[in-house]
Specification:
Blueprint lengths: L1 H4 L3 H23 L1 H10 L16 H45 L2 H6 L1 H15 L16 H20 L10 H5 L1 H8 L14 H21 L11 H9 L5 E5 L5 H4 L1 H5 L25 H4 L7 E5 L2 E5 L2 H10 L21
Antiparallel strand pairs: 1-2, 2-3
Helix pairs in contact: 2-3, 7-11, 9-10
């Protein structure tokens, strides 16, 4: 039937063009506003969208409008954001990764001043004969999630909400306000200013009081437990997210004696019991600070190693183990005795 009316496809197309020309140019005046709106949403043709009576809608007008009034302005703002936000952030993160590549989580076990203070307090506690408290496999899991909660809420969540104006501006650095390291390092320089409570606002007072309480808890706990604050430190969880990217890591090979031995887990100041059961990369637990005590107290040669780009920096040794246990037990108890109170013996 169409062949009889339109002998060629070209003529059929031309007929459609004439009809659509009539509809798009005069359709608005003839068909009314309602029909115009329906056609405007359906026909992406090239009539001027500024003609209020037109029967179609030009997508190019919309594109230009969006580019001019939204995307262009957004890119201008993005330029400022790039210069003021992304580049400084990338530089800060870049510097972190430069050190992290070489140190990995050894910063926690070798450099962190708060970690050193806690270790000194623990040694004092051992010399004073205070009882040793350790986390067992059945309760260590209750503590480990706290460091991730500290990271998400205090380090990332509240500062971001404060920057967006959702939370109070005083919550811009909540973790710094409660961090025990801030108090410990300043007190070591005979500066007591940081321990004073700020009473200007309720938030400042609460954060200051929480920081002082946490600092006091850490001091007391460190006399009886190894690295108490390190277990909940958000920097440990931050480093744990990237520990697999560093070429420095802890590696343990499978050994038949490990199931019966367990000396390495007794030596671990973070109570990582998995070190006695796991091997390979799995032995490098998220709580590990690369202190190396597990390697020091492993009684078999090269079962536990600290490697950098696959090269051994330190490995367990039978001879090293024999020398080490003569001075200190795996749990950190000195063999030279205490200077004040007698050690409390565990009840059998």
């Amino acid at each position: 039937m169409l062949k009889n009316i339109f002998p060629t496809l070209g003529r059929f197309r031309f007929t459609v063009q004439i009809i659509m020309l009539f509809v798009t140019v005069y359709g608005g005046a003839l068909l009314g506003t309602y029909t115009v709106d329906r056609l405007s949403q359906a026909l992406p043709s090239l009539s001027c969208a500024f003609d209020k009576q037109t029967g179609d809608h030009c997508i190019l007008i919309v594109t230009q409008h969006q580019l001019h009034h939204r995307i262009g302005e957004a890119l201008t703002k993005a330029k400022d954001i790039t210069l003021k936000v992304f580049i400084p952030t990338l530089m800060s993160v870049g510097v972190f990764f430069m050190f992290f590549v070489f140190l990995n989580k050894a910063f926690c076990g070798w450099v962190c001043p708060l970690g050193t203070v806690q270790e000194l307090l623990f040694r004092i506690g051992r010399r004073l004969g205070r009882p040793l408290h350790q986390f067992e496999p059945n309760n260590i899991g209750r503590v480990r999630p706290v460091k991730w909660l500290m990271l998400l809420v205090l380090v990332l969540g509240l500062p971001l909400l404060a920057g967006m104006g959702v939370a109070s501006n005083e919550l811009g650095d909540p973790y710094c306000q409660v961090c025990p390291s801030r108090l410990a390092t300043t007190l070591l320089t005979a500066d007591a200013e940081q321990i004073a409570l700020r009473t200007s606002t309720g938030i400042n007072f609460f954060l200051g009081a929480a920081g002082n309480a946490l600092f006091g808890f850490m001091i007391i706990a460190a006399l009886a437990a190894r690295q108490p604050f390190c277990r909940i430190c958000p920097l440990l969880s931050w480093n744990a997210m990237f520990q697999k990217l560093s070429p420095m890591r802890l590696v343990k090979r499978q050994h038949e004696k490990c199931e019966k031995c367990g000396v390495c887990e007794k030596a671990c100041p973070m109570d990582i019991h998995e070190i006695a059961r796991e091997h390979g990369k799995q032995a490098f637990h998220e709580d590990c600070t690369l202190c190396g005590r597990c390697a020091e107290y492993c009684p078999d040669d090269d079962v536990i190693q600290i490697k950098f780009f696959g090269l051994k920096l330190f490995g367990s040794s039978r001879e090293y183990y024999k020398k080490r246990v003569k001075k200190e037990s795996p749990e950190g108890l000195p063999k030279g005795g205490v200077i004040w109170l007698k050690p409390v013996k565990a009840e059998k």
